[in-house]
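Operator note (shift B, R.M.): manual run for Sulfatase requested after the automated queue skipped it. Running by hand, logging everything below so the morning shift can see what happened. Input copied straight from the record, untouched. If output looks odd, do not overwrite the archive copy; leave it for review.
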Amino acid sequence: MTSIDYPAFSRREMLKTASSGFGYLAFAGLAARAADQSAVSREGPLAPKQPHFPARAKRVIFLCMRGGPSHVDTFDYKPKLSAKSGAPGTRPGTKLLGSKWNFAQHGQSGLWISELFPNVANHADELCLLRSMQTDLPAHPQAFLQMHTGSFQFVRPSLGAWTLYGLGTHNENLPGFVTLTPPAASGGAQNYGSSFLPAIYQGTRIGSDNRPIASAQIRNLKSPLTTDVQRAELDLVQTLNRATLQRDQFNPAVEGVIESYELAFRMQKEMPQVMDLSSETEATKTLYGLDNEATADFGHKCLLARRLVESGVRFVEVSHGDWDQHFNLSKTLGANCASVDQPIAGLLTDLKQRGLLKDTLVIWGGEFGRTPHAQGTDGRDHNNKAFTMWMAGGGVKGGFAHGLTDDYGYEAVEDKVHVHDLHATILHLLGLDHEKLTYNYAGRDFRLTDVKGNVVKEILA
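Run finished. Output pasted below as returned.
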């Protein structure tokens, strides 16, 4: 309950007052007025909004591989690197390290993809590879924050928050932005926060990065009260909150509480059903790899992501880590890829079968890439000058590779795509002009891309 000038009633006291004669009438009157206000407010910040222009994508699933996957071992084929493995590297005192995995061309498009992703490779003609990605710094906290918020220096709203602010949500009974098992490190809650945007636009966290998603819960989804009594109780609390807001004129914290209380009440009806996978067929669970210990956890998250977007959630982020392979690359990179390959392919297949892929933008990648030279004998260091991400569905060209790195994959040399460009392009696919999607704060208009960013038009279908 917010800090206000009214007496602080406990739940028991409010219910006791509500059940007594005059107290009940007063309570009911307040509740009725608050209910009217609630109905109006639900037309507000989360209501669907018209994009700036016709959208190619209606929703986003961001498969975030925390730690920086090695592009030269996965989606950026460098035969010359393999041929010169052991030769002097791109930095003094280093040696080149060729990929330990074979690459092959896949699909009618002939995209080169590593054997580490045999199932994803079956979707080659749906993938749009961005092989010339760049970010500002080769440090995890800064690069991860920039990937999520556009800034590594200041606290800024996240990509998901900007998306929800610009478009609203399709389902008022669910959060518009959900993040599954986000990391506590590398910026933590900032990566799905709303910063100076209203608090209702921040992401709803489900689970944590060090626990299986199957055990994750959203607290307090079940109430010991009946729906009618809980609604009446909430209406009284909201009346007091709105009185505080009317008195203060401007109080973002109270505004956020009002909206979040209403959303939480509505979530109790629908969210448990979305989280429950028991209605899924065994064939679908197998498709996502839930019957395999190695793929079950990430498969569970990918299946939840599909259920969330299918239910109207606008933006879902699915985290997986750690891809920070300074050492023991041969074992750990292989294990990471094996744990996500089948679930990702299952997600793409499932979305396509349900007619959702055409307007769902699926994004895969991490905060930066890895060096072509060895760290030790079996590892790679951070590389912010070149890395690969890919997109599928949502209005991008399938079976297409954009940009080039040098012969060894050390630096992007053609059609460079900065993180600001990536953000501008994602918003464009959603029908949002990144230069017009602004919010006035501290006397100036802010946007996700600040004063930078260009839409990568070459990848648009």
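Quick read of the result: Confidence is low (pLDDT under 50) at residues 1-28, 37-42. The first helix runs from residue 11 to 19.
Leaving this for review. - R.M.
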